[in-house]
Design goal:
The chain is mainly alpha-helical. Helix content is about 75%, strand content about 0%. The chain is built from 3 helices and no strands. The chain has helices at about 1-30, 45-70, 80-94.
Length: about 90
């Protein structure tokens, strides 16, 4: 039932947008300033979530690439706790 309600809301908003466009055209013809209505296909919160997921994915893939190609190790070893404790020990020892 929630899908029906969401579809009705979308249809209502589309109808409202169409009505607003008609009003804008009428105002434009009468010489008043036109208003710009913007419809976003991807909401702002979803854009931020997508960016956060992509950043995490890039960090994971970069660590795997760096450890396997540049460090001559297995790519899956980057997920071992012992690998990270060894790296932290190397950093702190200097």
């Amino acid at each position: 039932m929630s899908l029906d309600n969401s579809n009705q809301k979308v249809a209502e908003t589309r109808e409202q947008v169409k009505q607003a466009k008609k009003e804008m055209m009428a105002e434009r013809e009468s010489g008043e300033k036109r208003k710009r209505i913007r419809i976003r296909l991807i909401p702002l919160w979803l854009r931020l979530l997508i960016i956060a997921v992509l950043i995490v994915l890039c960090v994971i893939l970069g660590a795997m690439f760096g450890y396997s190609v540049m460090g001559n190790g297995k790519a899956t070893d980057v997920f071992d706790k012992s690998t990270w404790t060894h790296i932290i020990d190397l950093i702190k020892s200097e």
